[in-house]
Amino acid sequence: MDQKQALPRLRKEIGSIILLNERYNTPKTSLALFHFEPNDSQISISDRLEKCSLHEKKIDGKELYIFDSFFSDAEIENIRLYSRSSSFSRMSYASHESREQGEEPARSMNNQEKWLFFSNPPEIVKNLFAFFGFLGEKINADISLLPWDLADENITSSAVATNRLESASKESMQLGKHQDYNTEKLAFGIPILYEKGEKKHYPGSFVNGGENFPWLVSCMLYATEDTFVHDQYGLGTIFCDKNGEVATTVSAVNGRFVLFEGDILHSIEESHIPKEISSWRVSYVFKLILNPKEPHQNMKTSVYNFLKSYF
Amino acid sequence: MQLAMDQLKPFGNVLEIGFRKEISEELLLQYRPKSLTILDSSEVQKEALEKWHELHPTVHCLYGSYKETLSTLGRFDLILIHQDKKKEDLELYHFLFPKKAAKNLTESQKMIQSLEGMMSQVQNRYSDGEVDDFYTKIGYLHPLEMPRFFKKLSANGNISKEQYDRIAQKYDFATLERSRMSSEDDSLIRLLEILIEKQLVVGGRCFFCSTNNSSKYDDPLFFETIITDQRVEYSEKSVQIDGVTGIIPTIKKII
Questions:
Q1: CB atoms within 10 A of CB B58
Q2: CA distance A28 to chain B (A)
Q3: Are residues A112 and B236, on separate chains, in Cβ contact within 8 Å?
Q4: What residues does A218 pair with on adjacent strands?
Q5: What is the number of other CB atoms lying within 10 angstroms of the CB of residue B26?
Q6: Is the Cβ of B93 closer than 8 Å to some Cβ of chain A?
Q7: What is the pLDDT of residues B66-105, one digit of tens each?
Q8: Using the 8-state DSSP alphabet, how is residue B145 labeled?
Q9: Predicted TM-score of the model (pTM)
């Protein structure tokens, strides 16, 4: 598990995604897609899945998978050190609405920091990318990020998001509730991979993960300072049901990652760090499209069927 | 530019695209590259280049468009791109005085926004004549803002949809919107693609002046085309000139 591997294979694609909402037709929007290809990794993802602790939860029928001990101790320590020394230059908010209502901002990476992180990531993230490529191969799907940046006049929504926090209030937890996207009104058209001939795209409204349709999920990797006590200090992630009530809370454990349907309402849990303690936690979020390569596939079911043997 | 040269430390086979006498002389005298090739397509520079070549016959000087002449050249260790003088003056202005340049741009945008704000409080409907009058007196000075400005007028009911369509066609809003959205360095990006593919050795570097002092990471077209090209390493260095921060972008070919 401690073997180092070459950079995972990422394939850049321009021009396959189309904009469906003029609101995002701005100079800051980039529709570049980055695909996670299966690679000849020396590290067996199957072995990692066998050894890791994997839990599945459902919220209003939507999936949430929690992966612990997927990475080695060295990798887990590495993300801590990486996060400690990285720069997070930008202030960020969960949404335009939450910002207007007074949400406390997190710190996030600016465009340069974000690209340098994504293009030359720490070891743990390379293995996460390798997992994406591996999963895509297993379920016969193309796995890519969402379009790199979707920007309207006020806010940019990025396919890769980073959040560094030292505290969060209860109000901020409430104000920051958001969906990463809503497949009932997507701003972009995803190409249909199994349609031959002229390029076609899915409509801007579909049931997330329904048969024949893509499944949009978010993957969140946590890193924490060594002073951070995850079962006491909060700053995890609350996941809410459709009524906005907290259905489950996932603690920010260093090296844990969560795969969840990004249209589950979620927010950063309020913090309980004692005033005399200096600590932080970072989340690295990758918003993914699992795009079926063949018709009549159900991505959500395919992932469940593949992962359930590891529960 | 001197500061940039100090950062680059030119060596090997050097190509300059665009003739700049002071820079070429600096290159020869201080850095003594293995070879120097200068390519310029400007009619204005042709005579100056020919005269300068007489004094420096070992320099390979070419006159012609880069599209026609680059294919005749080999590969280089360093490529310096100077764009046309007027544009470079503007780039230099941005480079040396980024705060002033940004302020001017911001003030232009602020004025339009202020106008939008005032006009949105007015319920009047404007005639075709009034709209054209506005455009010819004020709007033409801020063309890239006009599509958005008139869309707001239409949304506010100050002009009809038909009037908007007429104006959009007459003043070619489609092109203006694309110009606003596409990088100011669009032709530069195309040139860089060619240089990366055909003119740079592995390990070679390319330097150019940015149109403004914004990070190229914030330019989606440049990001998609150049920064994310896996054959290159892109970097930006911040430099301080008289207390003002500027950026030196560099592209290094790694594959």
A1: 8
A2: 6
A3: yes
A4: A260, A287
A5: 15
A6: no
A7: 778 888 999 999 999 886 555 544 544 444 445 555 555 5
A8: G
A9: 0.80
